[in-house]
Amino acid sequence: MKNNATRDKLIDSGAQLISQQGYNATGINAVLKTCGVPKGSFYHYFSSKEDFGLAVIERFAASYDETLVALLEDNDTPPLERLRRYFAAGREYMHACDHATGCLIGNLGQELSGQSDTFRDALNLVFQRWEQRFVHCLKDAQTQGYIAIRTTPEALASFILTGWEGAILRAKTLKSVEPMVHFETILFQQVLVPSA
Amino acid sequence: MKNNATRDKLIDSGAQLISQQGYNATGINAVLKTCGVPKGSFYHYFSSKEDFGLAVIERFAASYDETLVALLEDNDTPPLERLRRYFAAGREYMHACDHATGCLIGNLGQELSGQSDTFRDALNLVFQRWEQRFVHCLKDAQTQGYIAIRTTPEALASFILTGWEGAILRAKTLKSVEPMVHFETILFQQVLVPSA
DNA sequence: CTTAAAGTAGACCAGTCAGTCTATTGTTTT
DNA sequence: AAAACAATAGACTGACTGGTCTACTTTAAG
Fold first, then answer.
1. What is the DSSP-derived secondary structure letter of residue A187?
2. How many CB atoms lie within 10 A of CB B169?
3. pLDDT for A144-157, tens place per residue?
4. Which residues, other chains included, contact B44 with Cβ-Cβ below 8 Å and sequence gap of 6+?
5. CB contact under 8 A, A174 and B127
6. What angle do CA B10, B122, A158 make, to 5 degrees?
7. Are B17 and B34 spatial neighbours (Cβ–Cβ below 8 Å)?
8. Total domains present in chain B
9. CA gyration radius, chain A
10. Nucleotides of chain D within 7 Å of a protein C-beta?
11. What is the pLDDT of residue A196?
12. SS3 label, residue A128
């Protein structure tokens, strides 16, 4: 009843299709087809499409959190350099997916938070966990004197996360990482600075 | 064949439903039901759902551009105050819609730009027109000495628009305008400042 | 008064949706 | 070996999708 190769295959295919097309536009049959699993198995592992969607979110969040920790809590690297690497990784991914996919959590947040409170809560939690990772890194930067303490790390983390998500969205419609570059440039030039 | 009350009713209802539920989740029948128009009329005015969606975008953009001009090109008001008013209006709207709707263009950009190039192009154009309105206002601010000229107005406009869109997205999943407040606060405190 | 076109009206179509059902196969446990 | 359960398999259902079709009504032109 727990973990299983078939279940994993379903979640993997689902994450891929949902990333590309969105939740509503991705039919269960399409997921089944891409991984060659019959419908009976799907409803053996998941009670509904919503249940499946939540599992996709959960798994993506868990996997993404690992890379987030590796990037933002690497104490061998100066805090602002960690942030730079995070942005660079995001830009690379955006380029790799031909500017079509973006951020799964951001996509679903936009599509589903007005549609289902269950999804909204789940996505909100993911965002909040991400913000905490940023807070941790920003606190390091403040105590080490790299940035001023005129703003709380929490507010700064919110600023960075929302700005970055917005830049990703804009990059999708523009089919260019230019908005992401602009965001990063101005952020490091005027916000993440030491002097008051 | 041109403008008509029925056509307008369809677009109005469509804009409302699509704002709330998204494009894919909004069926044509639902639109027809909310404004009491039969299907025959719909396909008399629009050749397809995509055609309809584009008309909804076009009309929203035209109407929104008016308020944008009124806010950002009001020469009787200092440039930064114009921006403040723009953000205040956005916050008020977000509150009025119970944090559920957000920005129609942003929503559709997220949902459709990976799905249809036609939509992506249309939405991209709208964003670019908006950016130009910001550029105009920021140039005023620079020439009047309110903000430094270390960054091009174009890059700044991109930064503001993407940051704001991201804040709206985050406000939807959080059901609070807090991210929008954080964005505005830090923007005026550290980015839109005169000194180098 | 006639005729053509614009617009209204909704039954209808093939296809797809999420979800159900029964039957069968694999794998343990006893 | 047998019973119990997990998992596979896919045909099937009713509701709904975007879109088509024909019939009817209104408006305007000649």
1. I
2. 28
3. 999 998 899 999 99
4. none
5. yes
6. 100
7. yes
8. 1
9. 18
10. 6-12, 16-23
11. 57
12. helix
Asked if B49 and B28 touch (Cβ cutoff 8 Å), the reply is: yes
Assigned domain for A12 exists = no
A176 inside domain? yes
Q: What amino acid occupies position A71?
A: L
Q: Tell whether the model's pLDDT for residue A1 goes beyond 50.
A: no
Under DSSP, is residue A20 helix (H, G, I), strand (E, B) or coil? helix
- Asked whether residue A151, judged by its CB, lies under 7 Å from any atom of the DNA or RNA strand D, the reply is no
Q: Cα A4 vs. chain centroid, distance in angstroms?
A: 25
Range of the domain at A176: 53-191
Residue A39 in tokens: 């419908």
CATH number for position B83: 1.10.357.10
pLDDT digits (tens, 9 = 90+) for A26-77: 999 999 999 999 999 999 999 999 999 999 999 999 999 999 999 999 999 9
Quote the CA–CA distance of B139 and B143 in Å, as a whole number: 6
- Residue B186 touches chain A, beta carbons under 8 Å: yes
Distance, CA of A67 to CA of A62 (rounded, Å): 9
Q: Taking Cα atoms as reference points, which of B189, B194, B138 lies closest to residue B161?
A: B138
Distance CA B25, CA A23 (A): 10
Nearest to A64 by CA among A108, A118, A126, A9: A126
Token pair of B47 as six digits: 């050749």
Burial bucket for residue B139 (CB in 10 Å: 0-12, 13-18, 19+):
middle
Contact between residue A127 and residue A161 where contact means Cβ atoms under 8 Å apart: yes
Tokens at B33, concatenated: 């039901």
A165 located within any domain: yes
List bases in chain C with any atom under 7 Å of a protein Cβ.
Answer: 6-12, 16-23
Residue partners of B154: CB distance under 8 A and separation at least 6 = B131, B135
Domain assignment present for residue B20? The answer is no
